[in-house]
Structure formats: C-alpha cells, structure tokens
Amino acid sequence: MTVIFMYIALSESWTILGGYAGYVSFGHVAFFGIGAYTTALLLLHVGVNPLFSFPLGGVAAALFAAVVGYPIVRLQGPYFSIVTLLVALLTSLVVKNTPALGGTTGLWLPLPDMPIELNRTTFYWFMLFMALVATGVTAWVENSKLGLGLMAIRQNEAVAEAAGANTTYIKLAALVLSAGLTGMVGGIYGYLRSYVTPEIVFDLNIGVTLFLMALFGGCRRWQGPVLGAVILSVLGEFLTLNIGEEIARIAYGLCLVLVVFFPDGLVGIIDKITVNRKVAFGGKHAVER
Q: For residue 240, what are the CA distances in angstroms to 22, 124, 156, 189?
C-alpha cells in the first residue's frame, strides 16, 4: 500500500503538466531524486528528520524546475520530451561525480529510532498523506484558471497564445508545481529506503512507470492516475511474486499498447460505457440531462 500511495502521488503530479497540457515529460525522476538527496543531506549534516524536512525536498525540486524549466518549456512535442530525459540523465551524472553527495556509492541514512512495525506504519501514513495532497492539488488544478490554460495549450497552443494566454508562464507554473510535489515524495522515499544512491532515486524505470500509470488510467482527469497506479501496482506486484519480473514487464508493455488505442485511458472507457448505458436505457434526453 505504501508503494501504491507513492505512485498515486507521482502519477498525479506528472498529470498536472503531462496530462492537462499534453507536454510529456520523461524527466520527473530528476525532481524525485533531488527531493531524496535534499532530505538525506539535511539528516546527515543538520540532523533534521526527513519526515519533517520532506517539504524542503519539494522546494529544492521546484527551484531546480524553475531554473532548468524556463528554456525547456519553450520547446514542443518530442523535443520537450527528449530534453527532459536528458535533464534526468545529466542530473544523475552530476550526482555520481560529486563526492560531497556520496558519488556512485550514495548516502547511508540512519534507520528511524522506532520499532519496525511502527516504522512501516509511519511511512504508510506519510505516503497516504502525499497521495491525498497530490490528488487534491491535481483536482484543484483541473478546475482552476491554470487548468483551463493548460487544457487550452493541449488543444491548440497557437490559438491559446492568440487569445492572450501567457503559455510560457502557464507551462512553467505547472512544471514547478508538479516538480515540487514529486520532490516531496522523493524526500520521504529516500528515508524509507535508508539508502540514497543515483541508481535508486534517479532510476528511469520510476519515470517510465509513473508515466505509464497516468496514461493507462487516463491522464486528462484527476481520477485516472489513481486508477492506473492502483491497478498496475497490484498487477506488477502479483506477476513479479508469482510468475517473474520479465512477465511483469511484458504486461506493462501490453498496457502501453492499449493506451495507443484508448488515449483517454480507463476513465475514458468508463465514460463511454456510462454514456452508452444511458442511451440504451434512457434515450438521448437522459444523456443530455
């Protein structure tokens, strides 16, 4: 459940820019890793518990997104996606070659001074909190002026600019907000693992997984990432434990293929089924009502 909550929070965070604006980012794992390293360094050098400092991990990730994001959000389509992937790779490379950050060895964190049962329960509640926060923020964005601007960009960015929307500012605001939430989750995850290393917190598989979960559930509605994260997390865990990791990857690949045929994800399929049932049982006027 802790892992499910984590991926709900990450998928919802990604949806703010990737779903509403249609700007597919493969570099969100950079914000995740920055959040993890921020709380780890605060614990080791200042003595601040990551369960209290994880918001600072979000602040660090948001500041990083604001700096690198300003030129990046001016790119469109596959150029934006490729550059975000390069940002994640370069960030990981910089961390690996910085001795103060532990280099390739990483940083060992002292375990929380509490019984193992309480330890697991604590992280469970913190990840649940982040899942609720990310879902609430994403739902708010969907119904806000910011969300309206992001959806206008997805439909036709040139028309949105002609109508007076500052598309660069809107995309940058969405990226910074998305990165902040992702960094907060990373700040908690690093302490959960008690070992922060580039291979773990900058793992591109995390970025691909949250991207797939958002698309599978339906990234244009806030309910979609919740569905995608729950279903794919449970499916992946079941297949990995009972059949094998390779089969789980094949299943994930098949889900990605399904997204091509159903771009609105599970939420879109549910909406179509609901509309068809209303037509069948109540006629056209029932649907209109």
A: 31, 22, 41, 21
